[in-house]
Amino acid sequence: MDGTSTHFNVPTQAQGREQCLGPDGSVAHVTRVLKMIQGRWKLPILFRLYADPALRSSALLRDLPGVSQKMLTQHLRELEADGLVHRIDYEEKPLRVEYRLSEDGLRLLPVLMAMRRFSTGHATGLADPRADAP
């Protein structure tokens, strides 16, 4: 073998590990994406916007039981800052604002669906591995 896992092109020798562990490596990029979707309400917001292409914050507030207006606004702003959601202000009175997924937000859907498939296909009900520790 040439020192690389052919399936994922992951370096297995020390000189190639920079591609995974370096500041611009795979780990850094995956960590960045995880931080974008980290937060109790971000995934529910994204999935609601996948289901309905444009929603007002009042509809999101109604569809996500338990979320406060403050947290919804905070998470929407963070998703917008990360480029996953677009805020569209129609500059009307009364105020009318809608949220839509950006192109990057749409490109994230297959990743989230792959995570869902992994979760549903992963063995459930496994014992806590820490329970076997002495």
UniProtKB/TrEMBL annotation:
Keyword Methyltransferase assigned: no
Keyword line: DNA-binding, Transcription, Transcription regulation
Record InterPro entries: HTH_ArsR_DNA-bd_dom, HTH_HxlR, WH-like_DNA-bd_sf, WH_DNA-bd_sf
Domain spans labelled HTH hxlR-type: 20-127
Lineage: Bacteria, Pseudomonadati, Pseudomonadota, Alphaproteobacteria, Hyphomicrobiales
MF annotations from Gene Ontology: DNA binding
Record's protein name: DNA-binding HxlR family transcriptional regulator
